[in-house]
Design a protein that fits this description.
The radius of gyration is 70 Å and the shape is rod-shaped. Helices cover about 0% and strands about 40% of the residues. With about 350 residues, the chain is mainly beta.
């Protein structure tokens, strides 16, 4: 049979039947609106006649956004995908108005003529139908300051300055903790500001972690560095070294009749002149017992507390020196002389009148 070339209408292609001796033009779903007529070599009469197919002229009266199909010689108009209407009038369908057009909940739906577009929102990645959260913190700390913590959130991230810093998270400045209450350090500690924190160090003479500092008793070790003959007295954060004058209190424990003399590491006690003993106990010396106490041989030695008195004795002062009442007593060195008065005779110890 002689074959002739015919044209199927726009949007249709030839499909042979199972026996291969016939067929029909069927809708081509893969053709675009701007494709030209597809020519096919089919038996004459199988393709619609160009002059008799109403769809070939002005799309059969269908809307420009509709497909025209001849069914049993009659025109059928069907709005294409993305449009709605009766085929003669086709209006763009806003797919975004229903269920976000099928886009992801994390995407924006943008309507276009006959179609729509899905785009993932900022902070998400994907094809618009499926969108996954972007962890901004994985790159450059999410744009946060180097001294801030980046926390990923749905579609975004939060920036918060770390402890010891202040700011909005994008710019963080160091806080000088030492300016308030010594930074929480002990009153006997030095607060040193550091980047993002502070250190506490106990002052010399104190021990601890800086938050709590306790006074060190330096005197417990090597007498606090004082001389071996000095007394170490602990003070807050330090110690005092002082030589002790034991004599200042209760005469240093010496006897009342002794002299206390301060010495390195102690004191000495020495009995006063006229006393004998070890200084802690002192007894009066009776100087008169030895060599008349140093008095003249013709003097009387009288012991006194811590000393003695030497006195020449005038025997005449007592009972006229033993002379007679009618005699004159004259004191002499170590003795006395008795001489009868005028008108009397005798040895002075006994005197009688010359004239009865």
């Amino acid at each position: 049979m002689k074959r002739a070339r015919y044209q199927c209408p726009h949007g249709y292609v030839w499909k042979a039947n199972d026996t291969g001796d016939g067929g029909a033009c069927v809708e081509d779903h893969e053709m675009s609106l701007h494709d030209y007529f597809t020519r096919c070599s089919i038996p004459q009469g199988m393709c619609p006649d160009e002059t008799t197919d109403p769809c070939l002229a002005n799309n059969g009266g269908c809307n420009a956004n509709a497909d025209c199909l001849t069914v049993n010689g009659a025109v059928s108009c069907t709005c294409r995908a993305g449009y709605s209407g009766d085929g003669y009038t086709c209006t763009d369908v806003n797919e975004c108005a229903v269920a976000n057009g099928g886009c992801s909940a994390s995407a924006s739906c943008k309507n276009s003529v006959g179609s729509y577009q899905c785009s993932c929102l900022a902070g998400y990645t994907g094809d618009g139908f499926t969108c996954s959260d972007v962890d901004e913190c994985l790159v450059a700390n999410g744009g946060c300051d180097a001294n801030a913590r980046c926390s990923n959130t749905a579609g975004s991230r939060d920036c918060a300055c770390k402890s010891g810093f202040t700011g909005d998270g994008f710019t963080c400045s160091d806080v000088d903790e030492c300016l308030v209450k010594n930074g929480g350090c002990d009153v006997n500690a030095v607060c040193q500001n550091t980047n993002g924190g502070r250190t506490c160090t106990c002052l010399p003479g104190f021990s601890g972690n800086g938050i709590t500092c306790t006074d060190v008793d330096e005197c417990l070790v090597a007498n606090g560095g004082c001389d071996a003959n000095a007394r170490c007295s602990n003070t807050a954060g330090s110690r005092d070294c002082a030589y002790v004058d034991e004599c200042l209190v209760a005469n240093g424990g010496c006897h009342a009749n002794a002299d206390c003399k301060n010495a390195v590491g102690g004191r000495t006690c020495t009995c006063h002149p006229g006393y004998t003993g070890d200084g802690l106990q002192c007894t009066d010396i009776n100087e008169c017992l030895v060599a008349n106490g140093g008095c003249d041989a013709n003097a009387r030695c009288s012991n006194t507390a811590g000393s003695r008195d030497c006195a020449y004795v005038d025997e005449c002062l007592v009972a006229n020196g033993g002379c007679d009442a009618n005699a004159r007593c004259s004191n002499t060195a170590g003795s006395r002389d008795c001489a009868c008065k005028s008108g009397f005779t005798g040895d002075g110890l006994v005197c009688t009148g010359k004239y009865p």
